[in-house]
């Protein structure tokens, strides 16, 4: 039996996450899992560049992650940067910083930008590993800050697409008031529908039997649908949320002020201002999946691209 200890980092538009795990014969055993909201993609949709304060927040988190990986004797590291790093004009500053910090753990390590296709494949691998194959084909939706990946597959990926729409991007474009106005919500729905249209043409969701949602918007929706007073990852992992409960929670979040969202026990303070945008995307997807595939529930997985990254270097 072979085992090695790996460190995986997923740096998205809104959050940066770390997984330290022991890889044992192709399966992962968690050693440490952590998430921080750093909002790397702050303002990037408008400016085309990383904000200096966003880079500073990300560097601070990464320094802590590097110390944790060194302390846990990690032997292999992979850091993946997704939507924001694909778009930024000053991304060289970001990569110089990641090389400097990660090089203290494993020489020569740095972040890498992956394509939307690679992102989809890693998300799919992480999300469906524990699901019964009788539920296939699966449509996995990774709803991030700057992009949303749709992936269809059974044992392997059959089709995927990265849509240029996410909870941060949609909020910054459309949802400016607190709470958002009816006109802003209507505009956001139209933008979300347009952003998802090409993905839904590329990914034939009509054949899907099971919808699996991953990433922070999805896991928070599960926590709220289950009426949790505090976030419980074990209870969220592989939870099944019927569309009645799911859409009810989404409607409530969209209409709330930021302060009202912050008062919800499972809500991460860095997600409160953008989860309304995420909820709109979820509602648009639910409508399509109900109509085209007859799906009436969402399975929420705590395992996602981060687990796929770890498995890729195991």
Uncertain segments are none
Major sheet, described briefly? Answer: 6 strands, mixed
How are the strands ordered across the major sheet? 8-7-6-9-11-10
Shape estimate? globular
Terminal Cα span = 13 Å
* H and E string: EEEHHEHHEHEEEHHEHHEHHHEH
**What share of residues are in beta strands?**
15-25%
Quick description:
The protein is α/β, with parallel strands linked by helices and 314 residues long.
List the helices and strands and how they pair.
Blueprint: E1 3-11, E2 15-24, E3 27-37, H1 44-47, H2 52-71, E4 76-81, H3 83-87, H4 91-102, E5 111-113, H5 116-128, E6 138-143, E7 148-153, E8 157-163, H6 167-174, H7 182-202, E9 210-214, H8 216-225, H9 233-236, E10 239-242, H10 243-255, H11 258-262, H12 275-293, E11 297-300, H13 305-312
Parallel strand pairs: 1-4, 4-5, 6-9, 9-11
Antiparallel strand pairs: 1-2, 2-3, 6-7, 7-8, 10-11
Helix pairs in contact: 2-4, 5-13, 6-7, 6-12, 7-12, 8-10, 10-12
How would you describe the overall organization of this protein?
The protein is of the alpha/beta class. The chain contains 13 helices and eleven strands. The strands form two sheets. A six-stranded mixed beta sheet has the order 8-7-6-9-11-10, with helices on both faces. Strands 3-2-1-4-5 form a five-stranded mixed beta sheet, sandwiched between helices. Strand 2 (15-24) and strand 3 (27-37) form a beta hairpin. Helix 7 (182-202) packs across helix 12 (275-293) and helix 8 crosses helix 10. 50% of the residues are buried.
Key features of this structure:
five-stranded mixed beta sheet, six-stranded mixed beta sheet, globular, single chain, alpha/beta, 314 residues
């Amino acid at each position: 039996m072979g085992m090695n200890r790996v460190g995986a980092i997923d740096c998205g538009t809104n959050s940066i996450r770390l997984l330290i795990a022991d890889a044992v014969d192709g399966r992962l055993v968690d050693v440490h899992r952590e998430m921080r909201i750093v909002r790397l993609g702050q303002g990037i949709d408008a400016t085309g560049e990383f904000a200096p304060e966003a880079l500073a927040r990300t560097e601070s988190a990464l320094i802590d992650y590097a110390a944790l990986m060194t302390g846990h004797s990690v032997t292999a590291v992979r850091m993946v940067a997704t939507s924001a790093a694909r778009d930024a004009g000053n991304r060289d500053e970001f990569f110089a910083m990641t090389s400097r910090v990660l090089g203290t753990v494993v020489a020569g390590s740095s972040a890498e930008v992956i394509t939307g296709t690679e992102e989809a494949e890693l998300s799919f691998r992480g999300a469906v590993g524990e699901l019964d194959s009788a539920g296939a084909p699966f449509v996995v939706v990774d709803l991030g800050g700057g992009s949303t990946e749709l992936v269809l597959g059974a044992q392997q990926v059959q089709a995927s697409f990265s849509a240029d729409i996410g909870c941060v991007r949609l909020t910054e474009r459309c949802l400016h008031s607190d709470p958002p106005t009816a006109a802003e919500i209507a505009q956001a729905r139209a933008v979300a529908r347009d952003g998802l249209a090409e993905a839904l043409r590329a990914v034939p969701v009509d054949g899907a039997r099971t919808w699996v949602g991953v990433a922070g918007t999805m896991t928070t929706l599960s926590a709220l649908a289950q009426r949790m007073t505090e976030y419980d990852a074990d209870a969220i992992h592989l939870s099944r949320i019927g569309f009645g409960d799911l859409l009810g929670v989404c409607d409530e979040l969209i209409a709330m002020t930021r302060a009202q969202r912050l008062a919800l026990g499972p809500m991460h303070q860095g997600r409160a201002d953008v989860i309304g945008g995420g909820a709109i995307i979820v509602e648009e997807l639910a409508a399509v999946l109900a109509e085209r595939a007859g799906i009436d529930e969402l399975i929420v997985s705590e395992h996602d691209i981060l687990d796929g990254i770890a498995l890729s270097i195991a």
